[in-house]
Amino acid sequence: MKYLIQKGFTLRFTISLLVIIAILLTMLTSITSAVQVNRASLIGNYLQNNEQYAKKLASNTNELLVTMQQNINAIAKISGRSQEMDAQLFDDLFQENTQYFNSIVVADADRIVRALSPHTIGIEVGDQLTSAQSKMAVSLKAPFISNPYRATTGRYIILISAPIVDASGAYQGFVGGTIYLEDKNVLSTMLKEHFFGNGSYVYVVEKNGAIIFHPDKQRIGKSVISNPVVKNVLMKKSGSQRVTNSEGGQFFAGYAYEPSSSWGIISQTPTSVIDKPLHDLIKRVLLASLPFLLLILILGWWVASRIAKPLNTLAQFSDQATLGSARPQNVPDIKSAYYEVRLLSQSVKIAFQHLNQDLTQLRNEAGVDELTGLANRRTLDTVLQQWTEYHVPFAVILIDIDHFKGVNDTYGHVLGDQVLKHLAQLMRNVSLEGDLCFRYGGEEFGILVQRSGPREAGVVAERLRKEMERTVNPIGVPVTISAGVAAYPEHGRSPRDLILKADEALYRSKTGGRNRVTLSGEAEVKQVRSGR
């Protein structure tokens, strides 16, 4: 290097250095773009999945609380039949409800304990309950779910109560079932395992912002009202966002409000889970690009002394590719009589094309079809797997544009693409929140209709077919579609079986004359009979 500085840099060295810098900048730009696209996709997926998971748990929690209240009501009715509760009967009733309650107590209108089970909870028959929640149960004389409180036994609990009335309708007291929040309970059993299994977890807050369930039991009872996610969910909102919690941890959080208890369900994943996929992505792109980089360097060093002028053109292109606002699609053609110059130009073109192909492939893998904006095959496979694993009822509608090859041959691919976009918009119009519209490939599309049977999905498909038939298409003439419908679990319990059944129904639609909808195992859907 000292010798080069004293003598001056040779043209060969200077040109080779420029080639190295230009190609490295191009590679850096491509890798940066790929990482940004993939990061945005991963963040969006985690936010969406956590929100859906929180909504599912909120629904499950609602069903659980309804069941628990019904069971307490039933015990209250039994208690109202006689003045004294048979101890053995009461123990039997408790045993039937151990999966829901840690203990059950019967108290009269003066809050004197008349029966309890188990008998090791720290109070005895004849004791008077003094908590504000027991006073509220007597005051309300109606079923209610209490806020968390510290009982006289020292336990942090939630009380679910129901009034006791005798045959004449007179108030006799109440039955209370308790959940011990700091011990193993029905909430911890339901919520302790997060389906991601990657450091994600669920916690629950009551309406004042105190934690009533958390994998870390030491945090139960602590207020997290300052957490922006908790603020949102206690405002009866559901959604998702990136959040920093009260302990400084960063998470992708989804949240849902449970109205019967005014609880908030939060499902969150550490933001660090996206680091490894992004590192793997960078490594994969570097390994794919390295052979082409080495080829360009070798050829550039060999012919640098004879290609000063053509290389200047290539350098300007590289500068535009790495620093310009618009990325050029093709390397400029180099006019030269030298075989070496043409070879270098072709090598740069190949390297740039491969880098663009890698970036395009990564974008396609991100989950969205670039032409229509619908979900792509990868997203479809992920959602199908999740819904079947969690037994979510749904139906699959597979759609094929009739005679689409003729549209492309007659009007060209530009208008053909407009027809695809037109169908995609109609699919969005007929679908509801929670449904998934996707492009299966080519002119094949589909909709996952959540919580729907085959006939309800058939109604959606028939509505889409009519909309496509009667609306004005970009080519100015009617274009029709055929569709096939299959439902989980009626027609299959695996993603592969459902797609096959829907595809078979679609095939019957096409062989039956096209422009029709067919349910799996049944005939064509003739008309729309009801809406969703």
From TrEMBL:
Species annotation: Paenibacillus cineris
Compartments in which it is found: Cell membrane
Higher taxonomy: Bacteria, Bacillati, Bacillota, Bacilli, Bacillales
Membrane topology (UniProt): Multi-pass membrane protein
Keywords per UniProt: Cell membrane, Membrane, Transmembrane, Transmembrane helix
GGDEF domain segment(s): 392-522
UniProt-listed InterPro entries: dCache_1, Diguanylate_Cyclase, GGDEF_dom, Nucleotide_cyclase, Rev_trsase/Diguanyl_cyclase, Sensor-like_sf
Membrane-crossing residue ranges in chain numbering: 285-304
Name under which the protein is recorded: Cell signaling regulator
